[in-house]
Fold:
Amino acid sequence: MAAISGGGGGGGTGAASRWHYLDQIRRNPGPFNEDSDVSDEALAAWDKAKVLVIGAGGLGCEILKNLALSGFKDIHVIDMDTIDISNLNRQFLFRKDDVGKFKAEVAAAFVEKRVNGVKITPHNCRIQEFDEDFYMQFQIVVCGLDSIDARRWINATLVNMVDMENQDSLKPLIDGGTEGFKGQTRVIFPTITPCIECQLDLYTPRAAVPLCTLATIPRQPEHCIEWAHIIAWDQEKPFPSLDKDDPEHITWLYQKASARAQEFGIAGVTYSLTQGVVKNIIPAIASTNAIIAASCCNEALKIATNAAPALGFEESYMMYSGDDSIYTSTFRYDKKDDCAVCGNLAKPLAVDPAWTLQELLDSFAVKPDLQLKKPSIRAEGKTLYMQFPPGIEEQTRPNLDKTLKDGLGLEPGFEIAVTDPSFPALTFQFILKFA
Ligand SMILES: [Zn+2]
Structure:
């Protein structure tokens, strides 16, 4: 295979030369598209296409810039966050004077100023504040998020919006994610290809370490830090309340965690790791964000132009790892029939009949394919526990201490339904099994 050279200096100056290479792709049919894809109508339709970007942080800044330079002219961006001084090393659309302002607003104005002819509409709010009518206006949704809950929410919303009679209701979802030197890009065609919920078990929940592991057999430096954070702090109360920004408090946790790590022969507890675990900081690397954002925007360009096959229908998942030299791989992930969002089968739920209801609910937080923090539960249509409203919570609270079989009378084969306020559109269906 020949090495690829170039990709560099475009000839000429001025507005026309900026779009010269892009226009070659837009205006000429290639092996993957047809004359109709490069017709005046298709080009005009593309000029009108609306793209939604979710997140204006590390990935979002890159995505907005890339989409604008890929010829998308009508872009909306949602982000509820304001700019912090610590963002400035990589979120390159922000300057010191912008600290405290809304990310979406500043990012939109910056890109509009630099790329003539693009319109970027900012929304300084949560994605949950918009309804289906809002999401319906877009042709493509690109996510640069660091929250799994937000991804699950937009995924469920886009899957629910699909109306088989209306082709426009199907919105391709391009999802980028990074963590340190690792990243991934996924393309989802809602209801047709595996959705984010189908792939949820690829994320190990962050706080997934059971308390008993922390208390008895730590295996990793993070376990020792969590032990100091959750258990030792509570027992010894060295300061009235934990301030995660106070170096004295972090030092206390660091020393406690180090001592415990030594006891169990575990290496790797450092001050900065302690700070990271306690503050739940995901390390952000500017170049990883740039690589993943670039691949997300290439997929958007391919979907919009048909110039080359996009991720999605065959292989839908591209992972990138820069941890140990550079490695990428693209693979196929299958749709799950028992996916709570796009499937229609109940999942088997294996439980210990001697568990209390509270133990069962706690297990939902750490199960990789569920990750629910505030579950409510019904069995065979009967409410066992509801988080809301307060009156019903109080009525059902005594059930939490009852055991599943003897206390609540649950039997194998019972239909269990679980809901969570983070995903109002979803009901997780299970068939109970005793382990
Ligand atoms: Zn699914």
